């Protein structure tokens, strides 16, 4: 096994993610609703627009969209004209994360940000952080205590938004080890292993 590890790309064997929490009890300074970027329009994903998500991210298959909707996840899309330039998925229910092969189970009072994705042609315009700020405002207004997300070690822009601009904090990590038939999750900090996946200590 040691020889195989030496010949396998590290990310294929060890995938590490930070678990980031944003407390929602106190509003952020500033209000994202006051920002207008190129006449963006926010809306819940309509059934007839589900296929349009692939125009933004070709890797998001129709089967994956259906699975997320059947799980009870909520999808918010950001339009510029007739183009979906950004989308995000949030949920209060257990959510299967394919990249970890595990389920994350939010605690009571938590809302989990499953994924946020910006069309490559519209990146570096501040859309992601404005969309995130709006989502946090909405979650606070709905009575949630905190927002939780999982961010890959290599995702520097995602970490910058979550930690610096949204005043989040890393409460632990989850790492998926995989080599052949060997698969294991390891967690640190406030993250706890659960049946079929992981969650946070109360």
Summarize the entry for a quick read.
By secondary structure, the chain is α+β, with helices and mostly antiparallel strands. 24% of the residues lie in helices and 39% in strands.
Topology:
Blueprint: H1 2-7, H2 10-13, E1 14-23, E2 40-44, H3 53-56, H4 62-71, E3 74-80, E4 83-91, E5 95-97, E6 102-105, E7 110-118, H5 127-141, E8 146-152, H6 156-165, E9 169-179, E10 182-187, E11 191-194, E12 197-200
Parallel strand pairs: 6-12, 7-8
Antiparallel strand pairs: 1-8, 1-9, 2-3, 3-4, 4-7, 5-6, 9-10, 11-12
Describe this structure in words.
With 202 residues, this protein is an alpha+beta fold. The protein has one domain: Aminopeptidase. The chain is built from 6 helices and 12 strands.
Please bin the fraction of helical residues: 10-25%
Low-confidence stretches: 1-8, 30-35
Query: How far apart lie the N and C ends?
Result: 37 Å
Shape: globular
CATH architecture identity: 3-Layer(aba) Sandwich
CATH superfamily: Gcn5-related N-acetyltransferase (GNAT)
As laid out across the biggest beta sheet, the strand order is 2-3-4-7-8-1-9-10
Element order, helices and strands?
HHEEHHEEEEEHEHEEEE
* Biggest pleated sheet: 8 strands, mixed
């Amino acid at each position: 096994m040691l020889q195989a590890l030496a010949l396998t790309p590290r990310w294929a064997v060890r995938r590490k993610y930070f678990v980031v929490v944003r407390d929602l009890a106190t509003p952020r300074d500033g209000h994202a609703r006051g920002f207008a970027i190129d006449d963006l329009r926010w809306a819940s994903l309509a059934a007839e627009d589900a296929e349009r998500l692939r125009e933004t991210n070709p890797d998001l298959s129709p089967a994956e969209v259906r699975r997320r909707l059947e799980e009870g996840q909520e999808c918010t899309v950001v339009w510029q004209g007739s183009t979906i330039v950004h989308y995000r998925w949030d949920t209060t229910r257990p959510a299967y994360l394919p990249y970890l092969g595990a389920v994350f189970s939010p605690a009571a009072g938590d809302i989990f940000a499953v994924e946020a994705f910006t069309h490559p042609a519209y990146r570096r315009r501040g859309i992601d952080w404005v969309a995130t700020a709006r989502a946090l405002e909405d979650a606070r207004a709905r009575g949630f205590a905190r927002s939780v997300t999982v961010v890959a070690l290599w995702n520097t822009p995602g970490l910058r938004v979550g930690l610096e601009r949204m005043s989040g904090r890393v409460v632990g990590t989850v790492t998926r080890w995989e080599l052949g038939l060997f698969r294991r999750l390891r967690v640190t900090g406030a993250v706890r292993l659960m049946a079929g996946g992981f969650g946070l200590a109360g």
